[in-house]
Amino acid sequence: MEAKMRILLMLILLVSISCSTVEKNVIRQEVSQSIKVDLVFEKEIKGVVFGLPLSKPFGLAVDFKGDVYVADAGNNRILKFDSTMNPLKLFGGFGSDQGLFNFPTYISFDNGLNLMVSDEKNQRIARFNSQLQYVDQILFSDIDDPLKFGYPSGITFTNYGEIWVADRDNNQIAIFNNIGKYSHSLGQFGYAGGQLSSPEKIIRDMNGDFLVCDAGNKRIVRYDEYANYLNEFSLDLFEYPSAVALQQDKLLVLDSDIGSIFIFKKSGQFIGEISSKLLGDKTNLLNPTDLLFISNDRIIISDTGNDRLVIGKLIIEE
Question: Which of 16, 42, 110, 257 could form a disulfide with 239 if both were Cys (CB 3.0 to 4.6 A apart)?
Fold first, then answer.
């Protein structure tokens, strides 16, 4: 009798998994029939750049001139490319001294002036000026309260210079004032409203609201500039949405676990999915961590698991 019960439970589990898979496939099929979306592979950047092969490229940022910055996390350095992705400069190196890194991840510009780097394993945010010279740092640790912070991930800013730093370990956003002093935190571990689980990249939209990749909860959460929870959007297809990019009326969500890119209208309406196999590419995206618009329809992706950067052209046919 006990054996029969175990067999019955296994059958129920298999049917449940099968139904879940069918449901996700139906969603993909319905979307593909309504709006056609593709990302056409143009080129990749892989191999040696300034004497070292790319290793775990992670966060991406672009300055007001269109130059692109890449956190080459495996080599503990930041690479600067021009708008056509020709390498221009590097800085950093492994260490804990000023200007050095220990696994840099997300990067961001504060109003186009200073480059902020999430220096993850050194538990700090490093600031560099427009000449890429080290300026100062914000420590993401507290001797008096060791559990106050975890490891920093996404970074962004308010109009007043406040710094928002995602803390994936403590399921919160730590907010610092414009001189780098800790002010307060928002969010706590949970599944609804303003609660968070493993937050990753943060960006601001055209209204000045903050979009947080609440990756552990498989959703994107929106806060206003005063840290008030506004709303959220999610999709049954999400597994670990780690990065977002915004361009005019399009919002792109990158899922690191499955390597897919999900496209939404600015209003939050789902348009379609681009799978990890880009049109014209021979290699599937593997654990990509960030993406960025470098023009109206060209996108760069940190294909972290394949140690490369991928550039492609976005096509949407309604």
Answer: 257
